[in-house]
Amino acid sequence: MAQEDVFKKIVSHCKEYGFVFPSSEIYDGLSAVYDYGQMGVELKNNIKKYWWDSMTLLHENIVGIDAAIFMHPTVWKASGHVDAFNDPLIDNKDSKKRYRADTLIEDYLAKLDEKIDKEIKKAAKRFGDNFDEKKFRETNPRVIEHQKHRDEVHERYKKAMNENDFTELRQLIIDCNIVCPVSGTCNWTEIRQFNLMFATEMGSTSDGAMKVYLRPETAQGIFVNFLNVQKTGRMKIPFGIAQIGKAFRNEIVARQFIFRMREFEQMEMQFFVTPGDEMKWFNYWKNLRMKWHLALGFNKENYRFHDHDKLAHYANAATDIEFNMPFGFKEVEGIHSRTDFDLSQHEKYSGKKMQYFDPELNQSYTPYVIETSIGLDRMFLSVISAAYCEEILEGGEMRVVLKIPPALAPVKLAVLPLVRKDGLPEKAQEIMKISKFNFTCQYDEKDSIGRRYRRQDAIGTPYCVTVDHQTLEDNTVTIRERDTMKQERVLIPDVEKEIIAKTDMKNLLKMLAE
Question: What is the model's pTM?
Answer without folding.
Answer: 0.84
